[in-house]
Amino acid sequence: MREGLLERRNIFLIGCGVSSLVADTLREQAVKENAAVAFFYFEFAAQEEQSPSALLASVLKQVVGELEEVPERIVRAFRDRGRVVGDQRLLPSEIVEFLQDISSSRCIFICIDALDECSSGHREDLLDLLNHILQNSPDIRLFMTGRPHILSEVEEHLSGRTATRAITPIEDDVITFLRAKLKEDTIPDAMDESLEEEIMRNIPETVGET
Amino acid sequence: MSQYHFNDDLNPFNISSFGSVWDDPLVTNERLEILAWLSPLEPRVRHEDIRTRRVNEVGDWLLKTEEYRKWLGDVRGGGSDRAALFCYGGPGVGKTYIR
């Protein structure tokens, strides 16, 4: 039981929880500040499909989706190529260009979750592309989460352009999370006060041990 | 004033309304076709899934850290050489669990 809870707790504190929280917080601010927010969740199971160009295309789609009108250049590209046989897609270099165009009139936030789940080959290419984008577009901002083993790789490819922050579960978060989950218990009879007390006492103590 | 308008589509309880454009009756078919052409992916479905399982206030401390505020604050202030923020968390974080 303890293991199960610990496992879940970590997901919400470190993994998607953080990216999703940041993306939503940014979206709320974006409404006021004329910004666009795009996010991308990497998954081990989808390593083949989740290429750098798939990520960029998804980001562009989300950003364009927040504009009142599709930029003329994108409409033209679609009319020229989107409807021809073979359904030619945009090249990564074109996507980068379009994103840069849009970022001249509004901030773009890109949130990438679980970068470590991107295949290593794809990840190097992606980081180089992102570095290129950031270099040329001061109004594009990037938020990423991942496991520590890719820290040096991220720093190397985004040299001087990235700040880093270690995320460790904090006890308050674990307590808040546990209380919320215990309330959701579908078999309330299985829980009594002493068990709840024991859970609340023992699990937060293990914070940082995993 | 920008040429663009930001649609207010924050609605945590209704997945289908998350993508603002889908609800707009004035949306043209071509707009939808273009979006579908740009990318077949729908990351918002996954985002909604995760969002509904998040617990209020958990993780909020991150938003108050200097690193985060600086990264965000720099946006409003204009150009900065730290356009990216990488948050890393320990091994064994159990990301597989949610799949």
- Computed over alpha carbons, the radius of gyration of chain B is 18 Å
Helix and strand element order of chain A = HHEHHHEHEHEHH
Q: What's the N-to-C terminus distance of chain A? A: 15 Å
Mean pLDDT of chain A: 81
Oligomer: heterodimer
Task: Return the domain count of chain B.
Answer: 1
In DSSP terms (H or I, runs of 4 or more residues), the helix count of chain B works out at 5
Count up the domains of chain A: 2
Shape of chain A: elongated
Percent helix range of chain A: 55-70%
Question: Which regions of chain B have little confidence, pLDDT < 50, spanning 5+ residues?
Answer: 1-19, 75-79, 92-99
Class from helix and strand fractions of chain A: alpha/beta
Strand order of the largest sheet of chain A: 1-2-3
Overall spatial form of chain B: extended
- Mean residue pLDDT of chain B: 65
Find the count of extended strands of chain B (DSSP E, 2+ residues). Answer: 1
Largest sheet of chain A: 3 strands, parallel
* Main β-sheet description of chain B: none
User: H/E element string of chain B?
Assistant: HHHHHE
Low-confidence stretches of chain A: 1-15
Question: Quick summary of this structure?
Answer:
The complex is a heterodimer of chains A (210) and B (99). Chain A has 210 residues and is an alpha/beta fold. Chain A has 9 helices and 4 strands.
Topology, pairings included?
The complex is a heterodimer of chains A (210) and B (99).
Chain A: H1 2-14, H2 16-33, E1 35-41, H3 52-65, H4 72-82, H5 92-103, E2 107-113, H6 120-136, E3 140-146, H7 151-157, E4 162-167, H8 171-183, H9 193-205
Parallel strand pairs in A: 1-2, 2-3
Helix pairs in contact in A: 1-2, 3-5, 8-9
Chain B: H1 20-23, H2 29-38, H3 43-53, H4 60-64, H5 66-77, E1 84-89
